[in-house]
Inverse folding.
């Protein structure tokens, strides 16, 4: 499995080998040994897995979880094509405010690891794109937050009329969330991840 660090501290992209023959293919989108080699600890305790299906033009995010409790994610596109974006929302992080973008699709099956406190957004570039998520915490409407995906000048490949949820369309700008004290703090995020290192 190939791996590379992203421009957001602690975030990585992983590309598994895909074994193809006349029957189809098989791959392992998560592999512990290369993950530990990059991140420094085994994958967080997986509390929840989920899928999303999105038509072309759907924009989801920028989503993050109040910290504490915080949430880390490991995501990949099982079908279709996604432009995935990670944004460092952790106040005090060495890469605070930085972002990076990765194309996730059904050909490379590239995956992205998002540490605690890092924001996540994506645009579906094809109909019926399916994203798979492994999460370190269960989803809760009480702790799930968002900032506007249209605020940060992210390199999102957005159609003329992006499809956003009501929550994402009404999400505050990055600066407004910062002023309101809604963003996670880097040191708190690091403390949560330290527990996974044992």
């Amino acid at each position: 499995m190939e791996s590379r660090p992203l421009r957001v501290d602690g975030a990585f992209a992983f590309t598994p080998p895909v074994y193809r023959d006349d029957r189809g293919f098989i791959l392992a989108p998560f592999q512990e040994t290369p993950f530990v080699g990059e991140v420094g600890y085994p994958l967080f305790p997986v509390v929840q897995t989920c899928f999303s299906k999105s038509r072309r033009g759907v924009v989801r995010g920028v989503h993050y979880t109040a910290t504490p409790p915080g949430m880390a994610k490991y995501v990949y596109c099982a079908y279709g094509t996604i432009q995935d974006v990670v944004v460092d929302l952790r106040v005090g992080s060495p890469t605070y405010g930085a972002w990076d973008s990765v194309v996730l699709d059904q050909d490379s099956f590239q995956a992205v690891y998002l540490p605690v406190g890092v924001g996540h957004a994506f645009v579906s570039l094809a109909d019926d794109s399916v994203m798979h998520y492994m999460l370190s915490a269960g989803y809760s409407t009480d702790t799930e937050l968002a900032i506007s995906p249209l605020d940060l000048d992210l390199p999102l490949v957005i159609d003329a009329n992006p499809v956003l949820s009501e929550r994402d369309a009404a999400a505050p700008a990055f600066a407004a969330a910062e002023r309101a004290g809604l963003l996670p703090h880097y040191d708190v995020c690091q403390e949560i991840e330290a527990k996974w290192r044992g």
